[in-house]
């Protein structure tokens, strides 16, 4: 599990780095030579979607997403566990249809390509769909772990 989570983290980080490099390269090229990287905007959108879905997968399993824990902080352990289970179940209820819809979009992409370089969009959608599926699966794993009364698996820094 630790290796899989490390891989998910690396995927999300790599795509975030790619977005930063693409954006920096485009701005530098535009300022220095009054040119643009072909498809930089389309590519940045697709890379951002991939990074986002893989990041959601990690945040969901860890339960480390941005949240306000006003109620949770004032509860005892059984109350905290109940809130965590409810929150994870709700997250799973949203992630499963989201993953389904991304896979549906992948299936309907056909031969669509980016406008300049004519890169097939199917590969970008496939990576996004895999990330969305990973998010749903990890939400289910977290739900089972919480239901059994154990702490959710976390990666050590």
Fold topology:
Layout lengths: L1 H32 L6 H23 L7 H4 L3 H31 L14 H26 L10
Helix pairs in contact: 1-2, 2-5, 4-5
Report on the structure:
The chain is mostly helical. The protein has one domain (2-147). It has five helices and no strands. The chain has helices spanning 2-33, 40-62, 70-73, 77-107, 122-147. The longest helix has 32 residues, at 2-33. It is elongated, with a radius of gyration of 19 Å.
Arithmetic mean pLDDT: 88
Domain tally: 1
Low-confidence stretches: none
Query: Structural class from helices and strands?
Result: mainly alpha
Task: Measure the end-to-end span.
Answer: 15 Å
Query: Sheet bearing the most strands, described?
Result: none
Specify the oligomeric state.
Answer: single chain
Radius of gyration using CA atoms only: 19 Å
Q: List the helices and strands in order.
A: HHHHH
Counted by DSSP, the helix tally is 5
Keywords, separated by commas or semicolons:
mainly alpha; 157 residues; 0% strand
Give a brief outline of the structure:
Helices cover 74% and strands 0% of the residues.
């Amino acid at each position: 599990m630790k290796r899989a989570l490390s891989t998910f983290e690396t995927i999300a980080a790599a795509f975030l780095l790619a977005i930063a490099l693409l954006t920096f390269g485009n701005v530098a090229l535009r300022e220095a030579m009054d040119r643009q990287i072909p498809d930089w905007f389309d590519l940045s959108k697709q890379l951002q979607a991939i990074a986002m879905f893989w990041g959601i997968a990690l945040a969901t399993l860890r339960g480390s997403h941005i949240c306000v824990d006003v109620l949770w902080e004032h509860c005892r352990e059984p109350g905290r566990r109940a809130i965590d289970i409810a929150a994870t179940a709700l997250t799973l209820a949203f992630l499963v249809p989201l993953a389904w819809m991304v896979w549906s979009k992948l299936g309907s992409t056909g031969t669509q390509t980016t406008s300049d370089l004519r890169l097939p969009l199917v590969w970008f959608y496939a990576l996004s769909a895999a990330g969305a599926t990973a998010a749903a699966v990890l939400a289910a794993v977290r739900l089972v772990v919480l239901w059994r009364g154990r702490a959710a698996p976390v990666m050590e820094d």
